[in-house]
Amino acid sequence: GILTRLQTSAPAVRTLSLSSSFSQNIPSCLWKLGRLNHVAIAVPDLEKAQALYRDVLGAQVSETVALPEHGVYTVFVELGNTKLELLHPLGEKSPIASFLQKNKTGGMHHICIEVDDIKVAMTELKKKKIRILSEEPKIGAHGKPVIFLHPKDCHGVLVELEQA
What we know:
Strand content: 25-35%
Enzyme class: isomerase
Function: Methylmalonyl-CoA epimerase involved in propionyl-CoA metabolism.
CATH architecture: Roll
EC number: 5.1.99.1
Domain VOC: 35-164
GO biological process, one term: L-methylmalonyl-CoA metabolic process
């Protein structure tokens, strides 16, 4: 019957098993990487972007919040398992303004991952020659300390770490 045909025509599924030699090569850290907190998207028109997620896609969209220390307006789109952060420039010196000059229609700006101890993470990352874009953590959009890692040290991705 059909079940027999599916069993014989279906490709074999391989499972990935971690060998003990692979897991032994992972260095132990004094801090722990947590869950994906959000993906940030730079947008040239914040109201239009809010309307897309709220009115067209039916997502829960936060109010706009100004973060002068970071030079951005921010809006969060709730997705259940994570969030999208919509970023729009606040002032001419905004890093989002320069991003949008190069990317006129906007695009992915950074990813944010939670860590259990941001200060210890900073110390260990510096020892591993990962550049951090500030000397000290700043308070981010969620009211928690954040740092950014240089995209050239993270395979072209700007990574934000946020204290969980």
